[in-house]
Structure formats: structure tokens, C-alpha cells
Amino acid sequence: MKKSVLVYSIISILSLAACSRDDSSEKLSCNTEQIRNQIQDTLHTGIDNNARQFAQTDRRQFVDADKVIGAGGELNIALSEGKLDKDGNGNPVCSSELKVTVPTNIWQQIQTNAPLLFGKTDFIARLNKQLQGNEVVLHDNEFTKPIQYSPVTINGNAASNAASATSAATNFDLAGIQTLGTVLGNALLPYGIKDIVVINGHTYKRADAIELINNPNAKVTPVGQQSQSAQMASAILNGHAAAIINDNQANDNATGRNSENAARQGEINASQLQLARDNNRNANNVINTLWRNLDDTVRKTLQHEEQKWIANKTSQCQARGAKASSATYAEFLRLECDTQLTNERIKYLNGYTLR
Questions:
Q1: Domain Lysozyme inhibitor LprI-like N-terminal, which positions (predicted)?
Q2: Are 340 and 278 found together in one domain?
Q3: Distance from the CA of 159 to the CA of which of 86, 208, 235, 332 falls in 20 to 30 A?
Q4: pTM of this prediction?
Q5: Are residues 34 and 157 in the same domain?
């Protein structure tokens, strides 16, 4: 009988010791990748949705949503090391600080562009007003917010740890983070303003439009009002012959006259023909690159005009070469014509880009 009692006593002691060891092996952690990822995803979702909704409803069509979303991907989102504490009911809770930093170059561009969207109001004051009641502090280009979330229970069971981490990642100030995501989306909107915008029926380069908003009396020219060079470039669209005077020839009259005299006589040597080919290839490389880099909206607007210009240029330059007395002379005249008209068209298209 005594032996039996002794055995049970030993078993009980061992069991209690084991339980004690199991309990002591469980720890609470405030630093998990799941909570960081969940907060980051929530912010990016808010930015993306805000940008797309604004672009769809903005009748002025100033903003490129994809550009805003791209800027959102450049944000530095950091969560400080969590500290274990207790809430008002004595339950364990983690406290940390969320910091969202906008890259300096993006932040500067945002403030430069902001008047186009929000007028001459105080952009920072506007953001701070949206942040009221959300415990967010804006200082320079950094947004900071204190957050609390549930700790993760760490023990020897991997499945249990994963379940605890998943639960903690869904238990945080979701509404506050969603609001912050919306405000960040609003803050990034000016960065997405397109290179070309339309104000009061006139098309302006972005920099000129900003200047006009800041100073209504500014002397800025709408893109649609062509300079003399641009008018020359577009003359061919109306069937008028543009003056075929190369810029380099204008700066070097003697060389230009010699080249012209040689061309009139059909005395084109291999070196002159190769130079004409090289100049033409370079001009076409420049205009093709310029066309590809235009804003999508501008390119679509100019598509029909560009096709008409190419067809008329080809027709005019072929007609010019047909007057030649030899095949070599004909190619030379066609290339010179094509190069000159292409260079003038480059000047015209440059009016639709920001330099």
C-alpha cells in the first residue's frame, strides 16, 4: 500500500513538473513578419484603390493612376520593434510605431504639382486635416502612427505558432491603417499628373500649367499655338512645300552653296551620299525615340496626324527625287528632303514633351 502511494506521488510530481516546463516554454512575441506584411498590404490596397477611383471620376483627366500606384510602391514602410504591454483589462498587447516615408524626389514633385489639383491652398495643412483623429503625425515627408496588436504565442509546436501569428496579423487597428492608406493615396495624386494637361480648352505642358495656376498673368504659350519652326514642320500636312534648308547649311553658307551646286549638277560622290544616309538614319532614330516617349494620351491624339505627315512627307520627297538626272542624285535629294522635314517634325513634337 505504501509503495502504491509512493508511486502515484512520484507520477504526480513528474506530471506537475512537465506541465510547469511546458507553461514556461511558451513565450509571447511582438515581432512577426505577418503583422508587417498585413499592414503593408492594407496601405498599398488603399493607395491603389484611391488612385484608380480618382482617375475614373476626374473629368479633367489630369492624373495617371498607374504612375500614382508606382509611387506607392516606392514608399518605405517600417514597423518599429514591438514592446509587450498590457491593455486596460490586463490582457497582453503589443505596442509599436508605424512609419511611412515618401522618397524625397517624389515628395518634392508632389508639392510642385499640387496646385494643379488643389489650387493655391496649403497642401500640408490639407493633409493634416485629413489625418485628424487618426493619431497620425506628418513631419516633412514622414507619416508616423502608433499601433497596437495581439502578441504571438511561441512554443515548440510549429502549427500552433503559425495559427497564433495569423490571428495576431488580423487583430490590429485595421480601420486606422485603411484611413492612412486613403490619405497616402490622396497625398500621392499630384505625383501622377500627366506631362500634358488641358485647361480651359487649351493644352499645356505640365510645367507651364503649374506656372499659370500660380500666376494667372504668366506669359505661357499653349502647346496648340505653334512656333514658326512648328508651323514649318506642319506645313506639309496641308500640302505646302517646306523650305529645305538644313540648319547646318544655314550656319555654314559656303559649305551649303557648294553642296547645292554639286547636287544641281548631279556630282554626288560616295562620301556625300553616305553622309546623307547617316544624317537621315540619325534623324529617324531621334524622332522614333521621341514618339515612343510621348505621353500615351498625347500619342493617341497625334496618331492620325502623324500618319498623314509620314504619307505626305514620303510623297513630297519622292517627287523631289524624281527630278534628278541620275539614281544617285535622286537618292541624295530624297534623303536630304526626308532629313530636313524629319528634323522640323522633331521640333514640333518637342512641344509636347517636358524638357
A1: 262-349
A2: yes
A3: 86
A4: 0.56
A5: yes
Same domain membership, residue 246 and residue 209 = no
Residue 3 lies in a domain: no
Is 1 a domain residue?
Answer: no
Closest CA to 238 of 339, 156, 312, 131: 312
Give the list of residues 6+ apart from residue 55 with CB closer than 8 angstroms, or none. Answer: 61, 63, 64, 65, 192
The amino acid occupying position 213 is I
Cell 494637361 appears where?
A: 197
Residues 128 and 239 in one domain: no
Residue 283 is placed in which grid cell? 534623324
Domain assignment present for residue 341? The answer is: yes
Q: Which domain holds residue 215?
A: 196-221
Q: Find the CATH number of the domain harbouring 238.
A: 1.20.1270
Give the range among 10-14, 136-140, 150-154 with minimum mean pLDDT. 10-14
Q: Work out the number of other CB atoms within 10 angstroms of the CB of residue 334.
A: 21
Alpha helices in 171-252 (DSSP H): 174-188, 206-214, 228-235, 247-251
Q: Distance between the two ends of the chain, CA-based, in angstroms?
A: 100
Listing DSSP states for 31-45 in one string gives: --HHHHHHHHHHHHH
79 strand-pairing partners: 98
**Length of the chain, in residues:** 355
Q: Distances from the Cα of 74 to the Cαs of 106, 134, 144, in angstroms?
A: 9, 23, 17
Q: What pLDDT, in 10s, does the model give residues 245-261?
A: 444 443 333 334 444 44
- Which amino acid does the sequence have at 355? R
Q: Does 8 reside within a domain?
A: no
**Mean pLDDT over each residue of the chain, to the nearest integer:** 78
Give the separation between CA 264 and CA 272, rounded to whole angstroms.
14
Separation between Cα atoms, residue 291 and residue 285, nearest integer Å: 10
